[in-house]
């Protein structure tokens, strides 16, 4: 994909991996000349960052409650969380649109684009499973020392589930970053459109008129995929299991 995006002329053969005519950045220059690349990157960063923060906050709190706290209806509530995961987001698009745009009046706003991604049931499930692996004696010892539940969560539980935090950040990043349909529905303001929407419009309306449409499409794909790949490369060495029983005597 990277080589194809740098080709001056489209060549899908094996020999095209080493283009005879050399490599060029013209396809990327066409993208930058057709859309406000840095503005769309900023919009995507705001939307994705808001989704990540909301997912981490609500996911950690809900996952901790479902794994550690004991209350009536906990099993039923967790079953509902699992049920939500089998419902495709596309089925919820119209009800969410009516609720967000017409009821809350959040059209053409970052909050309206972030709102549906603030709570992620997959993140709740991941955090619950990690918290269940922690020895209950760790929580009991902290409570005996007078720690509140939030203190137990912050000082005892979270440091031991760092792989889960990084996994959720990566999984959450991919969804809003690549999301096209929802931001397209919520806002028609070009200055607020994220990168995925801008690249989709570029591919549909502009790429075909360039000297190398094939390379233009691949260049757009590289621009969209590069941040997710980079994030994974940065975090991959941290995706390791933690010795969760290290703090328990015996």
UniProtKB/TrEMBL annotation:
Record's protein name: Carbohydrate ABC transporter permease
Any GO BP: transmembrane transport
Pfam families in UniProt: BPD_transp_1
Positions of transmembrane segments: 46-69, 76-98, 110-131, 152-174, 214-235
InterPro entries: MetI-like, MetI-like_sf
Source organism of this protein record: Quadrisphaera setariae
Main location: membrane
Membrane topology classification: Multi-pass membrane protein
Any one GO cellular component localisation term in the record: plasma membrane
Keyword Cell membrane: yes
Domain called ABC transmembrane type-1: residue spans: 41-235
Signal peptide as annotated in the record: none
Keywords, comma-separated and alphabetical: Cell membrane, Membrane, Transmembrane, Transmembrane helix, Transport
PROSITE patterns, alphabetized: ABC_TM1
Keyword rRNA processing: no
């Amino acid at each position: 994909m990277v080589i194809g995006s740098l080709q001056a002329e489209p060549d899908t053969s094996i020999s095209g991996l080493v283009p005879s005519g050399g490599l060029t950045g013209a396809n990327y220059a066409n993208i930058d000349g057709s859309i406000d690349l840095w503005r769309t990157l900023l919009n995507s960063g705001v939307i994705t960052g808001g989704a990540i923060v909301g997912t981490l906050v609500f996911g950690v709190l809900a996952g901790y409650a479902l794994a550690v706290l004991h209350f009536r209806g906990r099993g039923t509530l967790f079953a509902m969380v699992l049920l939500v995961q089998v419902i495709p987001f596309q089925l919820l698009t119209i009800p969410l649109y009516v609720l967000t745009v017409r009821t809350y009046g959040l059209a053409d706003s970052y909050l309206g684009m972030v709102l549906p991604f603030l709570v992620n049931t997959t993140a709740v499930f991941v955090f619950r499973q990690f918290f269940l692996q922690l020895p209950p004696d760790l929580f009991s010892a902290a409570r005996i020392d007078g720690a509140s539940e939030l203190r137990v969560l912050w000082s005892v539980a979270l440091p031991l589930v760092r792989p889960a935090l990084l996994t959720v950040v990566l999984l959450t990043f991919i969804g809003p970053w690549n999301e096209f349909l929802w931001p397209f529905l919520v806002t028609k303001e070009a200055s607020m459109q994220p990168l995925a929407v801008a690249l989709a419009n570029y591919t549909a309306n502009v790429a075909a008129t360039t000297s190398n449409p094939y390379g233009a499409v691949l260049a757009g794909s590289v621009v969209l995929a590069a941040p997710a790949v980079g994030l994974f490369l940065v975090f991959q060495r941290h995706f390791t299991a933690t010795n969760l029983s290290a703090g328990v005597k015996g």
